[in-house]
Design a protein that fits this description.
By secondary structure, the chain is mainly α. Helices cover 59% and strands 7% of the residues. Helix 4 runs antiparallel to helix 6. Keywords: Coiled coil.
């Protein structure tokens, strides 16, 4: 065999890379094979060899130094740039025994290749054939090593894939269990949603019914409001009359006890000009009204329980600690001064009873309780109609207005007054405060000045 040029395939595994690296490091020389005098022949042979050199062959040509691994080579005038081959160090497929066998086989191949070269000079066909067979045997050994490596690599790959599949199966099983749980939760949630939807429909129907009831109640309240305004007017008139009724015995008791009524009236409304001496009673009514409505606050409460009693003392006996009972105690102590009570009765028994939480069943206290009842009811009805209800007062000297005021004099009620005369009339005394309930007005009761006051000793 004149020249054997093998063209190995491109390395595709770690073994192939190791073989290529080893062949590059251990580049062969044919030392002593070519005589020095046959230099030209050697050069021609060397040039001939380079012309048939395969750049992909990992085995270096004869006469090339190992240090020329990365140098450029020429073939038929063309430059070839060999690239260094890196060996992966991360492979764990081959053990120490396989690496040792690989190196031994490569060393044997090297010796067989040297023998093949030596068989050409002097030319010996028998030696060439023997050396060629030896080279082929060594190459077959390398191929066997390569096949064993690939088989191990494939086996490891199968093991790796099997391990990955096992892990995937475990994860799939866990995912399926989770999916089953989620489906169960979705089913439960769907049932809950359906139940809530049915409940919502029921609530919506109930809301519609409630809206209709509210509309009916609102309409009824609107109608009742008109009735309540009428009831409020009645309570206002009853409170005004009850104050007048309580002022009568109070004035009588004061006169019987020796009180100076003129001086008392003057202390209540100083500089008030009365058209008649009898009109001084309005000063006492104004005093009582001022005390009864002092600190007047609109508080919501039910007046029906007290209204069902004709005698307020019975209501106080039935509900001694009610709001009405507390209202009576507070107002009696405020209206009836201890000096008045002592001068009337010679003792303070009424005050003592009231301070102890009781209510004496006497004619004087009964008249007072009746007055307190109507003032208390007036407050409760006004608040029930309008929580924002307001009470207003009129100062002395204010200009008369028939929108917000009403005269307490009998001869002035409903009487036609000339425009000029109405413009000149002024308020001398406020007897009863007024109320503003929504858009309605309860006019305050006032005592007006007279253009021609009648002379006389008061």
């Amino acid at each position: 065999m004149a020249h054997v040029a093998t063209k190995p395939s491109k390395p595709s595994s770690n073994i192939s890379e190791i073989v290529s690296k080893f062949a590059k490091v251990c580049k062969l020389r044919s030392i002593g094979v070519i005589p020095s005098e046959n230099t030209n022949q050697h050069n021609q042979h060397h040039h001939h060899y380079h012309c048939y050199h395969n750049p992909n062959d990992n085995t270096s040509p004869l006469g090339e130094d190992s240090s020329d691994a990365t140098e450029e080579m020429e073939c038929d005038g063309e430059k070839v740039h060999p690239q260094p081959i890196e060996v992966s160090s991360g492979s764990t497929v081959c053990g120490d025994g396989e690496i040792t066998e690989l190196f031994d086989t490569v060393s044997a191949l090297k010796l067989a290749y040297i023998q093949l070269q030596e068989a050409h000079i002097p030319y010996s066909s028998d030696k060439i054939i023997a050396a060629d067979e030896l080279v082929v045997a060594r190459l077959e050994a390398l191929c066997k090593i390569k096949r064993v490596y690939k088989e191990k690599q494939f086996s490891n790959k199968e093991k790796l894939e099997s391990s990955v599949c096992s892990r995937l199966k475990v994860r799939i099983a866990a995912g399926e269990r989770l999916l089953k749980d989620l489906k169960s939760q979705v089913k439960a949630k769907s049932s809950e949603i359906l139940r809530l939807q049915q409940e919502l429909q029921g609530l919506e129907l109930g809301n519609m019914e409630l809206v209709e009831k509210v509309r009916q109640i609102s309409l009824a309240k609107k109608n009742a409001r008109l009735l309540s305004i009428s009831a409020l007017n009645d309570a206002f008139d009853a409170a005004s009359k009850s104050i007048h009724d309580f002022a009568k015995p109070l004035i009588s008791l004061m006169k019987a006890s020796g009180w100076d009524l003129d001086l008392a009236a003057k202390s209540i409304g100083d500089a008030v000009v009365y058209s008649k001496r009898s009109h001084k009673k309005y000063a006492f009514e104004a005093y009582i009204s001022r005390r009864m409505f002092y600190g007047f606050t609109f508080k919501s409460y039910n007046v029906s329980a007290i209204m069902r009693f004709d005698d307020p003392i019975d209501a106080l006996t039935e509900y001694p600690n009610s709001d009405f009972g507390e209202f009576c105690r507070k107002k009696f102590l405020l209206v009836v001064h201890p000096m008045l009570e002592a001068s009337f009765f010679g003792n303070l028994d009424h005050r003592t009873f009231v301070l102890s939480g009781k209510h004496p069943r006497t004619p004087f206290y009964q008249i007072f309780a009746k007055m307190a009842k109507w003032v208390w009811v007036l407050q409760g009805i006004a608040t029930s109609i309008d929580p924002e209800a307001k009470i207003f007062t009129v100062d002395r000297g204010s200009k008369f207005s028939d929108v917000h005021m009403e005269s307490v004099e009998e001869d002035m009620k409903g009487a036609a007054v000339a425009d000029g005369e109405r413009a000149t009339r002024r308020v001398e005394l406020m007897v009863m405060p007024g109320f503003k309930i929504g858009e309605s007005w309860l006019r305050s009761l006032v005592y007006l000045s007279n253009l021609k006051p009648s002379p006389g000793k008061c």
